[in-house]
Amino acid sequence: MRKPLLLAAASVLALSAAAQADVKMGVILGFTGPIESLTPDMAAGAEIAMKEASDSGKFLGGQSIMPVRADSTCVDAGAATAAAERLITSENVVSIMGADCSGVTTAVANNVAIPNGVVMISPSATSPALTDIEDNGLFFRTAPSDARQGQVLADVAMEEGIKSIAITYTNNDYGKGLADSFASAFQERGGTVTITAAHEDGKGDYTAEVGALAAAGGDALAVLGYVDQGGRGIMQGSIDTGAFDTFALGDGMIGDSLLTVSDLDAVKVMGTAPGTESDDAAKYTEMAQAAGVTGGGPYQGESYDAAALMILAMQKAGSAERSAIAGNIMELANAPGEKIGPGELAKALELVAAGTDIDYQGATGVEFTDVGEALGSYKQFAIEGGAWKVVQVR
Fold first, then answer.
1. How many CB atoms lie within 10 A of CB 307?
2. Whole domain around residue 62: which residue ranges?
3. Are 313 and 353 contained in the same domain?
4. Are residues 344 and 289 in the same domain?
5. Burial 83-107 (b: 16+ CB within 10 A, else e)
6. What string of H, E and C letters represents the secondary structure of the chain?
7. Mean pLDDT of the chain
8. How many domains in the chain?
9. CATH number at residue 181
10. Is residue 85 assigned to a domain?
11. In a domain, 14, yes or no
């Protein structure tokens, strides 16, 4: 019986070694909270990249990547910090794809990731304040800053004939940053802001908030909040009371769940979110659909690109050590080099391993500024016939 026992022991050791060979990458997003309808597809985008690299057999000599999810809640900095600590200390992830909302992203970066030397790339944290974060070169984002989104949304509103507007925003870093950017840009273009008012998420009734916005008046209401929380509640209340019949929405409101708002066909809706309609974006959409992703919400491509960049950075370093990632991100993301689109990670891994320069474009046309955030383009949306329609890309 000794030989079978030895074989059995060898099998156990082989399985254990294989398990230890997996590289763990964190995926921290708001799986509960005000954007919970958007995050499953964002996580799937990142995990598509991880699976693509693992299945290629070319990542770090054939190692595989295992995603480890954690819930940022989008709004609870304490919960997000605790979730990130679990990823880093207990799960021993090498890097983090996320977080999502700007406030929790700032908390995770400052309290956990940066002190522990862990790279994080957010696909969706857009607060202008993150541009100046003291990150020791560890924080990046594949989403552009709301400093630009405010300008784009103001252009859309003015072109739609809106001359005066009321603004409501979710009371956090994301909402305040976008509201300030939009209000400034709208006024610079000759528009009038009648009121700028914060709202709290998680309330069951927004009658008072809608009343204050209606009293201030305006041709339209800008809702810079979250699709599954206060932004939706204020929009529904405004429609129900007839307070406004035209809405300008920020990216946090662009999601399929908004299409279930009552009497939506009686109002005009416009909005903006990062994205493009390039061939690479279409290719990613095909990949996502093949993987069973059916939602049309934002930041899926940005999530794929965030994960892909960290994977390629490890390949360039020849190591999955945390300290090996950050120094390679900018070189991989920007020209010069052979352009790499979605679905081409096997090719990219080969080129990087051979020492060939690449220019990772990915699903969203990645190009980083000198502080490691995407320049980005924006889709202009409208709701027509009960569905989201892309009007143009700006």
1. 30
2. 21-146+278-360
3. yes
4. yes
5. bbbbbbeeeebbbbbbbbbbbbbbb
6. CHHHHHHHHHHHHHHHHHHHHCEEEEEEECCCCCCCCCHHHHHHHHHHHHHHHHHHCCHHHCCCEEEEEEECCCCCHHHHHHHHHHHHHHCCCCEEEECCCHHHHHHHHHHHHCCCCCEEEECCCCCHHHHHCCCCCCEEECCCCHHHHHHHHHHHHHHCCCCEEEEEEECCHHHHHHHHHHHHHHHHCCCEEEEEEEECCCCCCCHHHHHHHHHHCCCEEEEECCCCCHHHHHHHHHHHHCCCCEEEECHHHCCHHHHHCCCHHHCEEEEEEECCCCHHHHHHHHHHHHCCCCCCCCCHHHHHHHHHHHHHHHHHHCCCCHHHCHHHHHHHHCCCCEEECCCCHHHHHHHHHCCCCEEECCCCCCCECCCCEECCCEEEEEEECCEEEEEEEC
7. 94
8. 2
9. 3.40.50.2300
10. yes
11. no
Q: Are 342 and 362 in contact (CB under 8 A)?
A: yes
Q: Note the pLDDT of residue 297.
A: 87
As a whole-number percent, the residues of the chain with pLDDT over 70 amount to 95
What pLDDT, on a 0 to 100 scale, did the predictor assign at position 331? 97
User: What is the percentage of the chain residues whose pLDDT exceeds 90?
Assistant: 93
**141 plus 225 within the same structural domain:** no
User: 75 has which bridge partners?
Assistant: none
Q: What is the pTM of this model?
A: 0.90
44, 156: one domain: no
pLDDT at 364: 96
Residue whose pair of structure tokens reads 């945390």 in the numeric block: 322
Rg value, the chain, Cα: 22
Cα 147 to Cα 17, 100, 219, 271, 375, distances in angstroms: 48, 17, 23, 16, 11
The span from the CA of 275 to the CA of 277, in Å, is 7
Tell whether 50 and 175 lie within a shared domain.
no
Residue 270 lies in a domain: yes
Do 57 and 125 sit in the same domain of this protein?
yes
Residue 94 belongs to some domain of the structure: yes
